[in-house]
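chain below, 300 aa
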Amino acid sequence: MDLEELQLQLEKVLCEVSKDILIKLAVFLKLDEVKYQGKSKLSITRLLEREIEEQVAQIEDENQCCVFLKKIQLIEITDKEAPPKEIGNKELEVLKQQLDNMEKDHQNQVEALKSKMEESELKATATSVSKPTTNDLKSVLRREFKINGQIGEPGQKDKLTFVSLVRQIESASSKGYSETEVIDGEKSATELYQQLTTIVQSPEESPQSFLIRALDLHQKVLFASKEAGVKITYDESLVQGLFLHSLETGLHHEAVRTKLRPFLQQPDITDELLIEQMNIIVSTETERQKKFGTASQARQ
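prediction:
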């Protein structure tokens, strides 16, 4: 199994395990308790996905990445709520030894990366000490270009119009802002919203993983709207409606979409209830497909 398949499988398992197992994984990954204590299952799942992705990105060797992901899966499998199996003492000792070896390898990788980072920081500090130029001072003193206005529904007060957007862009150009700075200002105001509008389930992505990705993007849009210093805002009810619509139209599986539609028509539905219903629907549909597959083979 290659690295990409392991990551996809791990994302699916994270959506299915209990909150207690997610907390055990957070402890194993040495996350600060402040980041996950008292948080919802969805928040902890997102936190673990980001942390695992960051640690995988820091490991240069693909084989070591696979070992790291398999070790996490082993922890999930051994801790997952399931009927106990009888395992011989020798087999249990072998598994423990394998886990210990994986932990040592992972620790060595982390230490090596820390050493490289410290060396790079020392070199960067030694070479970056120089006098600030006039252009540097200008770039520091000049304010970052931002689009002012609010994305909303027709008739809404302070809604960003096309004419207002064009005038702001022309004004920025006349004040010496580069084309790149103007484009960045537009992206910071509209890119996340546009991504939520066009989000779709990829061919190798499970419905649960697609839901988590859509929820994460939904939260990012709201967070960007409330961030200090940001002029452009997003109406929460508008974003919630767009999220539910994009989730329905972006789902690849017709049967799952049909069964989930009644819940997507509830504007005040919670994230936790959506995740719960998605897991139930996918589990039922998987069982149904297996039954029909078995019946088809029997007729042949």
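The chain has 13 helices and two strands. The radius of gyration is 25 Å.
thats it, cya
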